[in-house]
Structures
1.
Amino acid sequence: MSEMHVYRFGPNMTDGKADMKNLLGGKGANLAEMSLLDIPVPPGCTITTEVCTFFNENGKTYPKELDGQLKSALKDVEDRVGAVFGDSENPLLLSVRSGARTSMPGMMETVLNVGLNDFTRDGLIAQSEDPRFVYDAQRRLIQMYSDVVMEKASGIEPEEGMGIRNQLEHELEKMKEQEGVTEDTDLSATNLKDLVEIYKGKVMEVLKKPFPEDPWEQLWGAISAVFHSWDGKRAKAYRKIENIPEEWGTAVNVQAMVYGNLGDDSATGVAFTRNPATGENNFYGEWLEKAQGEDVVAGIRTPNPLNEICRTDHSGDLPSLEQSAPHLYKELDTIRLNLEDHYSDMMDIEFTIQSGKLWMLQCRIGKRNGPAAIRMASEMVKENRIDGKTAIGRVTPSQLDELLHPIVDPDVEKSTALLAKGLPAGPGGATGKAVFTAQDAVDWAAKGETVVLVREETNPEDVEGMRASVAILTSRGGMTSHAALVARGWGMCCVVGAGEMKVDSIKKEFTVGDRTIKEGDPITLNGTAGKVYEGELPLIETDISSDYLTHFLGLCDEVRKLKVRTNAETPSDAKRALDFGAEGIGLFRIEHMFYGEGSEEPLFHLQEMIMANSQEERRVALDSLFPFMKNDIKETLRAMKGLPVTIRLMDPPLHEFIPHDAKRQKKLANALGINTEELERRSEALKESNPMMGHRGVRLGITHPEITEMQARAILEAAAELTAENVKTFPEIMIPLTGMETEYNHQEKIVREVAAKIEGLDNYMVGTMMEIPRASLVANRIAETAEFFSFGTNDLTQMTFGFSRDDTGGFMPAYLELELLPEDPFASLDEGVCELVKMGIEKGRNTKPNLKVGICGEHGGEPKSVHFCHNVGMDYVSCSPFRVPIARLSAAQAVLNDEK
Amino acid sequence: MSEMHVYRFGPNMTDGKADMKNLLGGKGANLAEMSLLDIPVPPGCTITTEVCTFFNENGKTYPKELDGQLKSALKDVEDRVGAVFGDSENPLLLSVRSGARTSMPGMMETVLNVGLNDFTRDGLIAQSEDPRFVYDAQRRLIQMYSDVVMEKASGIEPEEGMGIRNQLEHELEKMKEQEGVTEDTDLSATNLKDLVEIYKGKVMEVLKKPFPEDPWEQLWGAISAVFHSWDGKRAKAYRKIENIPEEWGTAVNVQAMVYGNLGDDSATGVAFTRNPATGENNFYGEWLEKAQGEDVVAGIRTPNPLNEICRTDHSGDLPSLEQSAPHLYKELDTIRLNLEDHYSDMMDIEFTIQSGKLWMLQCRIGKRNGPAAIRMASEMVKENRIDGKTAIGRVTPSQLDELLHPIVDPDVEKSTALLAKGLPAGPGGATGKAVFTAQDAVDWAAKGETVVLVREETNPEDVEGMRASVAILTSRGGMTSHAALVARGWGMCCVVGAGEMKVDSIKKEFTVGDRTIKEGDPITLNGTAGKVYEGELPLIETDISSDYLTHFLGLCDEVRKLKVRTNAETPSDAKRALDFGAEGIGLFRIEHMFYGEGSEEPLFHLQEMIMANSQEERRVALDSLFPFMKNDIKETLRAMKGLPVTIRLMDPPLHEFIPHDAKRQKKLANALGINTEELERRSEALKESNPMMGHRGVRLGITHPEITEMQARAILEAAAELTAENVKTFPEIMIPLTGMETEYNHQEKIVREVAAKIEGLDNYMVGTMMEIPRASLVANRIAETAEFFSFGTNDLTQMTFGFSRDDTGGFMPAYLELELLPEDPFASLDEGVCELVKMGIEKGRNTKPNLKVGICGEHGGEPKSVHFCHNVGMDYVSCSPFRVPIARLSAAQAVLNDEK
């Protein structure tokens, strides 16, 4: 820990800079950077994140040097502002805000107007000549401070609804009622002055302590409340979701107050240097006259548009800053361009106008949704602001995923009556049952329901419920409201500020005019357009062929080393995957033809084969099956035009295919010339205690070589026939579930013998699926004959853990809850499984240096797993068609990681 | 390949010696060695095993030097014998015998009297003055040669019963019938002379080729027949069972004929320098006057006892050699002592007396059964012939296993009427259903039947059927008959030569007097006493506390480094294991108390616990269960007197314990205050698709920490109470199914918390069962907290292969048949699994160099696996009580292996 705990910022006295985020937090570092750029920032100082760590590790105490350093830094603030902290004539007021390395919106505390008491109040009234404003500031301080410092940071846990914050809010409402007004701003100075006294009394009554009048006591209380809040329940939950390390800590920024609510020529606003929802290169923001910043973010008042270009239907004829104060707008726009030039990225800024003077309170890299991230990345490359690799680093896989989200079918949407309209805060379409509390969202989702969380507005307590929902709908708040921020971060469908809606969370319903939507009623959201519909509208996949995306993924393709294939089994899937950029099929499950449409007849022949009592009977059934299989394979090979297609031989236990209904059983028995009792007996004989580890995969091919032979013939004859039609093909025959080289060799020999009898074969390969732990252990020997390895990490994960995926329900939730596992190993590759994959590749390549290696488990489209596949030197990953773009991006980012 | 293909032996001209077995085969090397010891050996020469390999790899041709070398060696034989091969006046006759490195009784061919034709015959008649003997020799040559060389080596496969051997045998029987005699020896010279002509005609008729008269053609034919027979079906099957490599090959010994059937002062015999069935230090053997060696081995005539000490009831008053020819017996006894002094081991010898002159035809290390092997090893150490380590090397684990075989309950046996009496050819008792052909034995055994193979006499074609049986019973033959040799080698229960029995293999029955035993009727054999009983007699375990065994295992204990523990769960098992030499319990499965006798009440409480709907209900059930569990553990800890006892916490899926009968279900539902439908619903919820990989082991302890807590309390309180009684204890608490260090740590914390609350605890440990592949991969991290690892190789094998042990029936037989696996990996540790075990130990000891490591799977008592455990540096193996002596021996032999 360094000995410097306090860093100054503001005009002429700046100790920090942008790249000191770890020490100063994001807000503090950027305030310093803006100061260095001569952007007007109210002076202040940052207490480092190291102090936060010290505080929480040392029984809530501070390093001994802090007091002196803080006093000295505040002296410099006083000098620059020309006011004195605690002075009754010319008082300096301070804001105390958290600022961690990474933004944690709404998770930590802020206290404004610190230093205001009955004495400094009077000085300020004299100075500002606006008693209403000053009383309002004082009642805000009491309201905030008593909640954040006196109650929360002291660990008091009041009963539901009985917190000091609610009780003071109640007093405010009472006062408004008594005065017959609806808006806070309609209260007079006298009302507010009375309210200050009422507040103080209530604080004493509820918290059994007087509200502190000593400015320094206020300041230290506010600082400690911020540090306390790092350790709070909400913040911890958020960090868990966002994978933010506990040890980072937050900094505290102590800054001279500026007021957007001082008078008619005061205002406050939030803006983005480009549109964070679409990526368009337009200055985009919201502002409110006579308001503090919190008012915009909290979504209590519907904000005004920053300029004409970002005016929407929703903005109505609210005044834009561009109209209301063109010179200030121009000054802000200049800062905007200055910041973009400096940071080469889209910035999120907060500003306040105090009595006609513009101040910047914050600047940070702006959060953006997926479409915006990709458009900005693409356009900034074209503007020569950034290079391709930087662009790749700017888009997260989950942002890209947003583009791949379904949307509401536009044809259906066109003809469906709108229920309500709000702001388009999160992309894509979603449909689900309405629920009205976060807890209900969690509970319903746990029961397998798809839910849309409907709230007046969301707050940080709702995070878990938001996570459990497919979409969020609020009746209040703007694009920078809590719901909008969270949904954007998660790439989640979200509509906010649908003001026509009246949400009643007690009755669990909302109404729009005469329509009432009750808990459990289906609703549909178009998060891209901010539209809400009653009922369940059909969703369709988005068209991801935008020029920006094509350009962006092209940048990825230039960088990445991993090939990206897809798991597909039909010509239409194959074609779609090609559109998504797939470079082959990594997993074609031959048994897919026995599922779904058109499978009736081949399935029947398969059943005949399974129930056959002799090799001859089996061969007859296989012969009937053969033409179906050959044709099925042929059409997919044709669609892939010579790209490699890995076809996995039959894998599941045969018992899976046996008919269960009496009619089909009868038909099958008749075809076999046996009675149903005999059929039942044969079926019973196929049952297994642990079918996952039973007679399946290569084991079927060993005991029934004629099945392998038929499959090899179907694949290779299909390929040869296409070659004769001048269609290029590259089938790769994959033997599943291999654990020993002897198994593989046994099967490979059958395939080669079949191949030797087929004329006009183009290239083909034979290899194996690596999904049994033992295969990795003897990979050197398997690689002596196998031409490729494809890691089947679903089964490999099952066997490595001894977890049956179908049976983890009883304990996996507990494992994740207790953090025994960082995440579900079936979602993201586990390190133990990675160890086996690595070993398999190393041993395999020891034998055959050019061994082709890929992955075809579901992990092949999961970003962290793709990084692993890159690091471990695989040739390709394979994933479902919709994950192909994600894999392309992740593979490129893996290369970037290498270069770090 | 060396250029010397032929090695001479016999008086004064010996090229080889005993340690050249690889090149000369066992017989050839030992003939050379005996020659060097001045023991009378008929001169001859050995064609090397390398020639066999050359022959079978080069299209049945010979190295070019062979012809010259063989001629030269035979010249030396002629010189020493004073006779000339093929000479019509003074002809030399030769025997041609196989001789591989290791004995393969009856598997390969022999041709005697080579060189005899119509011309040499007349010379021999003139010389021997015994035309009957010479004609008999000639008809034997034709009979043997036409079968072995002209038919078998030519690959002719006649129909069943239509082989030349049978057809000539038929002619012999016809001749005997025609002459009204019953014994071959009653045929006159004229009869035999006629038979020679009849034989020649039959050979021409059946094989369409004349019998070769050219002595050299005969010799080369005989040599090639031996080499052919190495490649024969029977020999291959035998090698597969005995794990003899194909590439060893056999040598061929060409030796001057001596005749045990030349006249009244001729004889032949087989002997052991000590009794091979009991190990007693007595000269033991059998002989026949006027016979060739084959007559003794084939068991066609019941042989005479060699001396008075080995006379049995069975020998009746047949003359012993000791009585009949005391000087020759004395000469033989001197050779016996000479050989034992020289070889320091029990030798198996063959001798022939020709016209009063003793010749040794063979000497080799004698096969012995288990009890004999152990007695000899022990006694030879006491006689200072060999040291302890040599003794350890002299006993195979399977020989030791024989001592551990069950025997017929002596009390029951005493009061049971004997059905028949034969020779005690294989140890122990056995009971099974009578079958009468080798094929039936195989078929019945495949259906899961336990069978005893009953034959008049066995032959090499029966080997597979013998293997499939639990015991063998023959009505003819002696202790050196085929059945006896094979059974002794396999340590199998066997009774031979039960002459009262009439075996009819066509009708599939045998009769003794008026009793008839049909196929499928149960019979019981006492192979140690040679007794046969009707019906199924109870078997009991043998008393293995003989002084020889105790001494022998003591020798093992001095050498071995591995500790040997046992898997046991009751005080009586624990005590038995201590008697067997166990040094602790390596696996005490806590759930055993819910199986078997006395489990009714604890099982009911377990069921209550499983079906409980809340943690409170579960705690109530656990409290009821607690006293049972504590007491159960306490008594076993008490029996083990401070030796380590590894107690594994509950492992199986809970669904296993749920009652299936309506009455118990009703009772359980009542106790829980629910109806049976609800019970059914809860039971259904516990069902799993793959219970082996489901909610069990540590996973139960994670989701239900109160179960772990109760078990820890039961174990540690039991230990503390014993400490208070001044009884030493050393419980090792084992967490099963661990795959992650986080799981282990979670459970360990519970155990430590329980321990902290218990006063007066002696030493205890907490560790884990290593049975999930992932555990080996992260063993370094598990070892940070775990105090010991115990490899559960049953489950580890399941997961490593992805083989559900319950479901391998569908493919494992095919895997073994196709040799995809060298053996069942659940019987002997697989190399892939070994790799994981090794990795686990290395990683674990990297973290904690003194980490205690053991094995508690069933492999812990399997010799090859024990060797692996030794090599990989485990501290102990643990196995079932009856395998403990095997483990002690194997552990000592592993040390011997190290020293090689």
Note: The two ends of chain B are 26 Å apart (CA to CA).
2.
Amino acid sequence: MTSIKVPIIENILEANDFVAEENRKIFSEHNIFCINIMAAPGAGKTALIVKTIELLKDKIRIGVIEGDTASVTIDSDQVVMAGAPAVQVTTAGECHMDAMMVRKGMEQLPLDDLDLVIIENIGNLICPAEWDLGSHADALVASVAEGDDKPWKYPNIYRNLDVLLITKTDLIPYVDYDIDHFKSGVEILNPGLVTFPTSAKTGEGFPAWTEWLLKKTKAAAEK
Amino acid sequence: MTSIKVPIIENILEANDFVAEENRKIFSEHNIFCINIMAAPGAGKTALIVKTIELLKDKIRIGVIEGDTASVTIDSDQVVMAGAPAVQVTTAGECHMDAMMVRKGMEQLPLDDLDLVIIENIGNLICPAEWDLGSHADALVASVAEGDDKPWKYPNIYRNLDVLLITKTDLIPYVDYDIDHFKSGVEILNPGLVTFPTSAKTGEGFPAWTEWLLKKTKAAAEK
């Protein structure tokens, strides 16, 4: 018998990362692009997702995995009304989603019939940054109402992002928010990060953002 | 020898609660009222604290313990400028403050010369709800820009509050926010909760809120 070296899975994050890697493989095998959307509570994740579905649903097939700390279906109901299958994963008070929750959500989605899976993470700027879910891209939604100092206050979440969505730009006239100051903070943490200023109310920025997402989704399908 | 039963401290929360109880006792021995202010990122905790200090600093002596995930001093600088001693406690990426962090902050404050200590918790609606810091009251700051569905989405944090501050009411005309819907959700979780709608911009609600806080502080001093 030859000696087989089995590395021990050391900690909860390592186990998580193992499942995340598998999730990513499963998505890729189905030619699906998966994006994980993070944000503070009330930043406008659901409004962004609903509008994105409305604009893209005739071009690609979209499924959503909704993370919620409580078992209310407010968000998933809105997503279903917008025309996409949604699975709600309740974290029962946990402060972030993990790869296993996403796996359970994936099992409920018709993966063979999807091109894009959007994960709506728990509203939290700290804990979700640590947990790989198995997505191909990580996005952050940052509302102008939160203030322009957030990159300095919550730097970790900005470091590994692939795309940043500034939301509620229609509120800029009514809040103290200097978009250049905000962007200068982001630039320190994540140079050259793709950034879309958007408003779900006025539609500003949605053509550019959905074009970016469509391009990524099509590239994943062609792999 | 008589048998002495020593209960074992079982978990991290039990150890935390032990320190928290001590913190509360130390505050009380110094005739200090301590309030823990929680919120989502960007809800306006710092603006509320700064304005509260400005309005109360001639009546009572206020100290602030600032929790931050990163070692930036944006918030504590603002508090010091408003005229109160502030200690910044950096959680080094942790998603909440705990009783030990507060203890370390207390050690840096001139407790003999204070009537009120305000703890500005980390911006997070989930994790801070679990951790007793040793305060006499827990407050939540909820901005109207976050939306009126938050009690349903983040119920745990509403359950044990002593006071609720609705902030940025000046934005109500520009956002979809039904204050009665919001309050109806709060009422289910925490019936009769003392609630102050406020705007740091217009000053709305600050006379009532600061009067409540002053009354609590004076009652603590007389005990």
Note: Helices of chain B lie at 12-29, 45-56, 74-82, 99-107, 150-153, 155-159, 179-189, 206-222.
